[in-house]
Amino acid sequence: MKDDKGFKGNKRALPAKPCAVCGRPMSWRRAWAKNWDAVLYCSDACRRRKGGT
């Protein structure tokens, strides 16, 4: 029986990539499913710092 309330499996099986600013690994999220290739930043703070240092 499938549970649609959220991901209950192994998160290591999900795709991951580094943040363009800080380099922290970002795990795939359902909210990013449609634009995973366009996701570059792990947070709004990194998005604001993108042009800085």
Strand order of the largest sheet: 1-2
Quote the distance from N terminus to C terminus: 49 Å
The count of strands amounts to 2
Helix percentage:
10-25%
What fraction strand? 5-15%
Broad shape: elongated
Instruction: Report the biggest beta sheet as strand number plus sense, adding barrel if it closes.
Output: 2 strands, antiparallel
Overall mean pLDDT: 84
Number of helices: 1
Q: How would you characterize this protein structure?
A:
This protein has a domain at 15-49. It is largely without helices or strands and 53 residues long. The chain is 11% helix and 11% strand. It is built from 1 helix and 2 strands; from the N terminus they run ββα. The protein has one helix at residues 44-49; strands at residues 16-18, 25-27.
Write the layout of secondary structure elements.
Elements: E1 16-18, E2 25-27, H1 44-49
Antiparallel strand pairs: 1-2
